[in-house]
Structure formats: structure tokens, C-alpha cells
């Protein structure tokens, strides 16, 4: 099966995440890197958005999932995000996600979690 990869690099989102007291009730920045493999049925013939998966919808789903509620762990968030993208978008075959917290530690640029999941993994 041919696939097309849609990717987002360093999508910045303010989210409620963390287990520490100062993280509860406040937001902090997250950076999302996503590679989303979409089944390619046909090559677009009319150069119209209706012929492809509109990446604006993928972006909005990522933002919605990251901001809908407080989450304690990055692991939980990245699992929920992968499951949502695969279940909400029928054409999505595989996702690779990297979610990072750039303000977690002063001595590194970021810390985060990466996951790779395919449609068959969620069955």
C-alpha cells in the first residue's frame, strides 16, 4: 500500500500536564512532532482539498487532545494522542509522535516521550 506522510514539526501547545504541585492548575508549553502515514488510494486529479486528508483537521485533533483536560504523564498523553489520530481518521495507517516538555529541566532543551503506533496495534 502506498502512503503519504503528513508531518508537523514542533507544534507548540500550552497544556495542563504534570505530577508536580506547580504543574497542577497551570499550563506549560509542549512541543509536538508528528509523522502521520495516510493511505494513498489515488493521486489527486483535480488539485482539490477534498481529495486528500486535510492536515488542518489533524492539527486541530492534536491540539484538542492535548488541551482537553489535565494529564499527569507524558506517556498517557502520547498514548491517547496516537489512539485518537488512528481512530478518528480512517485513512491514518501509522503515527510516530514525539511530545516534549521544553521547560522541564534547566540543563537540557527538552525531555519527552516518543511513540510509534499502527492501525493494527489498537485492535
TrEMBL record:
Its EC number is 4.1.2.25. Keywords: Folate biosynthesis, Lyase. SMART domains: FolB. The keyword Hydrolase does not apply. GO terms for molecular function: dihydroneopterin aldolase activity. Residues 6-117 form the Dihydroneopterin aldolase/epimerase domain. Pathway: Cofactor biosynthesis; tetrahydrofolate biosynthesis; 2-amino-4-hydroxy-6-hydroxymethyl-7,8-dihydropteridine diphosphate from 7,8-dihydroneopterin triphosphate: step 3/4. It catalyses: 7,8-dihydroneopterin = 6-hydroxymethyl-7,8-dihydropterin + glycolaldehyde. It comes from the Bacteria. One of its GO terms (cellular component) is cytoplasm. Signal peptide: none annotated. GO terms for biological process: folic acid biosynthetic process; tetrahydrofolate biosynthetic process. PANTHER family: DIHYDRONEOPTERIN ALDOLASE 1-RELATED. Belongs to the DHNA family. Catalyzes the conversion of 7,8-dihydroneopterin to 6-hydroxymethyl-7,8-dihydropterin. This is 7,8-dihydroneopterin aldolase. It comes from Pigmentiphaga litoralis.
